[in-house]
From TrEMBL:
EC number: 3.2.1.21
Pfam families cross-referenced by the UniProt entry: Glyco_hydro_1
Record bears the keyword Signal: no
Superkingdom of the source species: Bacteria
Catalytic residues, chain numbering: 358 (nucleophile)
Catalytic activities: Hydrolysis of terminal, non-reducing beta-D-glucosyl residues with release of beta-D-glucose
Database matches in PROSITE patterns: GLYCOSYL_HYDROL_F1_1
Keywords assigned by UniProt, alphabetized: Carbohydrate metabolism, Cellulose degradation, Glycosidase, Hydrolase, Polysaccharide degradation
Gene3D superfamilies xref list: Glycosidases (3.20.20.80)
Molecular function GO labels: beta-glucosidase activity
Stated family: Belongs to the glycosyl hydrolase 1 family.
UniProt protein name: Beta-glucosidase
Organism: Pelomonas caseinilytica
């Protein structure tokens, strides 16, 4: 039997293959949708700053307004209710609630999240929060050197404890970091993301501080909340471009730097020896006791999956064959790898229950005008259904996954790509900020309704 028959997906049968208590959601992040960048006392973030540096963002845009979710969140919650979602993953903007990243709290900022959480609960949607989705208070970068400074670890733990103390009883989960690999590598090594540095040694030191801040934040939050606590990691599984030993080694090293560099300290209490040897003098400074602090028991593991990487012998990535095509980001569509990777995680790490905290595609969507304007995003429906089929298969092979969050609810600010890449189930017209559910939103709504019919 072909467990992953992606050619003939029957949405009704697929929906019924998920356990009755499986949860369906969408994900967003503060910097990408909120706007109101300098309103009600919010401090600047490193992304507010980065967007203002010429050449950093492809379309020269910024996040001053973004999707204006800060003012339109009620409409957005109503959209989610219309889709029948069980849950919603969003992030707190640290500089909105603590403008300088230390010292005074901003009550007006907390009040926004209070209103958001209340309206989600009223709509019957469980709020899942992330504390750090890349928008570090700019003041911490200027005054302390951002994540390069070990002092930021304690600042983050304080912030985490304050959010947990105020909101923990109303949150379905709290994740410390979103994708620490991206914060460290894209922010400090490749300069694609804020703050735009170009040093591998810095990036690995930052990664260590992120890990330490994760562990310390979990410990600090445990003292004040019973909310389930975890972390969100992005996994882009690495494969050799050919069966040659050199390509295999390059893929293995990348797996060490991308997957195991984060999984191993969290779940095994050590950095992977092969990757550590490979980075040589760029290895981070690790103080006595750090690895024990990082390895905190977790209630869940969030996995973000989009694509894979293929490696040639020189350690550079090679474009895959794209049997199922590529997304508008140029990312190869590989649902089989999604299934395989989840099974690998279950077997190699025996992690706590997993959530797919992000999965989705950018597509060159456009609105078809007429009496009933619509967005016929058949590519996204194909991507979504193939990945859900893969997820169902992985679960039947032993991966303990409890929920799925599509990335993203809305088209939004896709970091250094600006507003050009559309990931949403809901189209956003950036001139009017009008929201229009795409065909994929209806597909997801009907899929969730099918699943619910069996509960
Ligand atoms: C992930 C990010 C998310 C979004 C998607 C496309 O790496 O967590 O904010 O940009 O990619």
């Amino acid at each position: 039997m072909n467990l992953l028959d992606l050619e003939r997906i029957d949405p009704a049968a697929l929906a019924k293959s998920f356990p009755p208590d499986f949860r369906w959601g969408v994900a967003t992040s503060a910097a990408q949708i909120e706007g109101a960048a300098f309103e009600d006392g919010k401090g600047a973030s490193i992304w507010d700053h980065f967007c203002r540096q010429p050449g950093r963002i492809k379309d020269g845009s910024n996040i001053d307004v973004a999707c204006d979710h800060y003012h339109r969140f009620r409409e957005d919650v109503a959209l989610m209710k219309g889709l029948g979602l069980d849950c919603y993953r969003f992030s707190f903007a640290w500089p909105r609630v603590q403008p300088l990243g230390q010292g005074a709290w901003n009550e007006a900022g907390f009040a926004f999240y209070d209103r958001l959480i209340d309206s989600l609960l009223e709509a019957g949607i469980q709020p899942h929060a992330t504390l750090y989705h890349w928008d570090l208070p700019q003041a911490l970068d200027e005054q302390l050197g951002g994540w390069l400074s070990r002092d930021v670890v304690a600042r983050f733990a304080d912030y985490a404890a304050e959010v947990a103390r105020r909101f923990g009883s109303r949150l379905a989960s709290i994740a410390t970091h979103n994708e620490p690999w991206c914060t460290a590598t894209l922010g400090y090594e490749t300069a694609q993301f804020a703050p735009g540095h170009t040093s591998r040694a810095e990036s690995l030191q930052v990664a260590h501080h992120l890990m330490l801040s994760h562990g310390d934040a979990v410990a600090a939050m445990r003292a004040v909340t019973k909310a389930p606590l975890g972390i969100v990691l992005n996994h882009t599984p690495s494969f050799p471009a050919t069966p040659n030993e050199a390509d295999r080694r390059a893929a293995r090293i990348d797996d060490g730097l991308n997957v195991r560099w984060y999984m191993d300290p969290i779940f095994r209490g050590a950095y992977p020896a092969d990757a550590l040897e490979h980075v040589g003098a760029d290895a981070p400074r690790i103080a006595a006791g750090d690895l024990e602090r990082i390895r905190q028991p977790l209630d869940f593991l969030g996995i973000n999956f989009y694509t894979r990487s293929l490696f040639g012998a020189d350690g550079k990535t090679v474009k895959g064959p794209g049997k199922r095509g590529f997304t508008d980001m140029g990312w190869e569509i590989v649902p089989e790898v999604f299934a395989q990777h989840l099974v690998r995680l279950a077997r190699e790490y025996n992690p706590p229950p997993m959530f797919i905290t992000e999965n989705g595609m950018a597509n060159a969507d456009s609105v078809v005008a007429g009496p009933q304007p619509h967005v016929p995003d058949v590519e996204r429906i194909a991507y979504l259904s193939a990945h859900l089929q893969a997820l169902s298969t992985a679960m039947s092979l032993g991966a303990d996954v409890r929920g799925y969050f599509y990335w993203s609810l809305l088209d939004n600010f896709e970091w250094n790509s600006g507003y050009d890449k559309r990931f949403g189930l809901v189209h956003v017209d950036y001139r009017t900020l009008e929201r229009l559910p795409k065909d994929s939103a209806r597909w997801y709504r009907d899929f969730i309704a099918e699943h619910r019919a069996r509960r």
